Amino acid sequence: MARKKPQGKKSKKAEVEEETPDLESVDQGENSDGSSQYSYDGSDGDGSQQEDEGSDVYVSDAYDDDDDFEDQGSSDEDEELMEKQHEDDGSGDEMNELEDLEQTYESAPRKWKSGKRSATGNPRKGTAESQLMHTDDLSSDDEDEDGTGNRIGRVPLHWYDDLEHIGYDGHGKKVAKSASKTEGDRVDQAIANADNQLTGKFVVHDALNDKSVELTQRQLEIIRRIQNGAYAHPEHDGNPDYIDYFSGVDPELSGLNDNRYLPKSKFQPSKWEKMQVDNLLRKLEQGYISMDYLTGKVRDMNDANKNKDPNAPFLLWTGAEEDELNMKKGPQHIAAPKVAPPGHAESYIPPNEYVPTEEELKEWEEMEPKDRPHGLLVPKKFPNLRSVGAYKHSVREAFERCLDLYLCPRVMKRRLNIDPESLVPKLPKASDLRPFPTAKCIEYKTPYDGDDAPVIRCVSCSPNGQFLASGASDGIVRLWEVETGRLLRSWDLSKVSKSVDPDCDEDDDSIKPVVSLEWNPNAAHHCMLAAVGKCAILLATGTEGVHDAAITEALLSEAKTGGNIKTEKAAKAVKWHSVKSESKPVSSFGLSSGPICALLTRNEVASLRWHTKGDYFVTVSPKAGAPSVLIHQLSKGNSQQPFSKAKGEAQTACFHPSKPFLFVATQQHVRVYHLVKQAMVKRLISGCRWISSLDVHPSGDHLIVGSLDRRMIWFDLDLSHTPFKTLKYHERALRSTKFHNRYPLMASASDDGAVHVFHSMVYSDLMRNPLIIPVKILRGHSIQKKLGVLNLSFHPTQPWLFTAGADGRIFLYQDI
Fold it and tell me: Where are the stretches annotated Disordered (predicted)?
């Protein structure tokens, strides 16, 4: 039966019209805070009827049929506000448009069903979930997954009125504006709005992104429910059934604490169970329980112990008494320290030296009791023991003793009885590491005129080990026979250096010392180099045999003609001068002997070294600047200047035995250069103040450096750029360090007059570190003017060592 309308009430159509929002054309609007507003596409005006005060609102049949909407009503203030808006917007011309909009709105599909949930949050049986509204809301970031939307935030949009873009997207690109809103566009908008009404579309304008957005059915449904004062989501139960929550209820049914994270203790083993297991293990080890008791075969240990003999012997001391003491609960009892026994000062008849005088008593009174010799006690003599009275500070000292006992912590410390020798690594015996030089066998006596013997600056042995060359401070290079100690030849290179140097005066009587001497390491090349003043002088030894004479003569042929320098830069740094010598060769097969050629540089030469093949050699002049390091080729008589800039003062240099590497040592660093690539490979940080010597291991993977601050540093080139080991055995500056070419031996000479010999085994296994063990200290040279052993050289084939000292003597140490 149809319900009759009460008089004075509004029709359903009017009620729906009042619930329908005001429709405006698509336009841009902004709030006071700069955010954009949405307006519905429709006609420019709206109209509604005013409702009388106290009138009831009727809901359409479409709303009555749906039980899911909750009519929550509105407050009186909202009704008064709506009435005021209707009075201000009274326009009856738009009723037809609203009716059309109402029809379109009512005809919109609404497919949802009631979906009340149970106490667990799951849908109840017999109800279906919402097909239209049961979807999760998407955040603003999820709606713009591609990042093409405007991301300017709450920036006022009128700032972009004069610009061609309206903001920036998530990628930092400009968001372009759409076509400008002119009067002609208004007509197109009105036509589009009419078409949208016919098709049932609802289009709004997104002012932030400057585009039109079509509202979905879900959005329309949310708007309609909000207008009606209902909950936006149809499945929300505003009046759920009451659940009687009480303690002990099943949390799955009640929903209490169902979304809490499990505590950390749930993921960790139980400490109480650990204590129980430890207690059972302790009883099992001590024999109080057995495995039968743990597995349940025996219910009581008393039944298992009935068959045991009570008179059976047992160990009285098991050796675990200390562990049992530590396992007891509570702090361990530690006896209080005993009071020191009384001394002579506490005697009633102290000696006279303990009795203070009046001046000492005045000094003690001004001092603190803890600073006095005997504390509060003042030694005093008594005629007999009966005359000794009560000690007036006994209560105070007893009180301080009690304070010390309970305030000062006491800890039981275990004293480890460890033999110190067991902590020292076990090294092999020196006798097991032989051979190495042990005793002085031969002395080479240098002839001289005057009172003081010349200082022997350098020594070098021939590749076959038959001859020895020495350079002294008198500018003479002497050739010795190793086995007999006989002096074979002497060449005065100081005169040769003066004759070549144009800056040297003829009346100059100064003597240029031989500071460096190196024999050619190739056994077929019988020649040597000597550094004297500004010259590096090439000498023919004249010791070649029948097969080596022609090879040596061919090698020295280019040097005899004065060299052939090809580069202009090197020609400015060094000049080759041929020198004539009338010295007779030592060997009958020798073709020439004595100085052959002199290489004149800008500054004094401090060091020179041969390459392993015996054709190239390098000279070092520390004060020469950029041309301080020069590389020369003997077979072609050519010289090269590898560096255009000087990185510090070069002290010494040497070649790698098998690779095209050049090691250049400055005062504190060693730089490794690749001669083919013309680039620095590595810079070794020595940590020394002044590097004095340098030598490379025959394998080429290790390097030793000697310094004037008593250090010998070992570098592992494959390991690091920092020292592998630093040895400090000498008392004064190191002058020379050398490796043996055949034996695992290494030696260092110092100004303290001693030579230290080391066993230095380098393994082919890269996982094993080199074995460095000092095996012998050789002494024999005396210190002259704070100078000791200045140079050393190993015999090429025997474990022998040649040493040269400032005392003018040369020694040969052999393995005896």
Answer: 1-153
Q: Are 783 and 413 in contact (CB under 8 A)?
A: no
Neighbours of 389 (CB within 10 A): 7
Assigned token pair, 738: 């050398």
Instruction: Name the strand (E) or helix (H) holding 489.
Output: strand 487-492
Same domain, 380 and 521: no
Same domain flag for 658 and 803: yes
Tokens 């603190």 appear where? Answer: 368
372 and 281 share one domain: no
My answer on whether 287 and 367 are in the same domain is no
Query: Do 485 and 621 fall into the same domain?
Result: yes
pTM of the predicted protein model: 0.53
**313 located within any domain:** no
Distance CA 700, CA 659 (A): 8
- Bridge partners (DSSP) of residue 460 are 469
Same domain, 133 and 169: yes
766 shares a domain with 635: yes
Say whether pLDDT at 727 is over 60: yes
Say how far apart CA 716 and CA 684 lie, in whole Å.
Answer: 10
Q: Note the pLDDT tens digit of each residue in 279-302.
A: 999 888 888 888 888 888 888 888
CA dist 334 → 337, 404, 662, 670 (Å): 9, 14, 69, 60
What share of residues in the chain are helix, strand, coil (percent, to 5)?
Answer: 25, 25, 55
Cβ atoms 500, 494 nearer than 8 A: no
777: containing domain: 439-814
Residue 167 φ/ψ region, left for φ over 0, alpha for ψ in the -120 to 50 degree band, beta for the rest: left
Nearest to 196 by CA among 87, 91, 100: 100
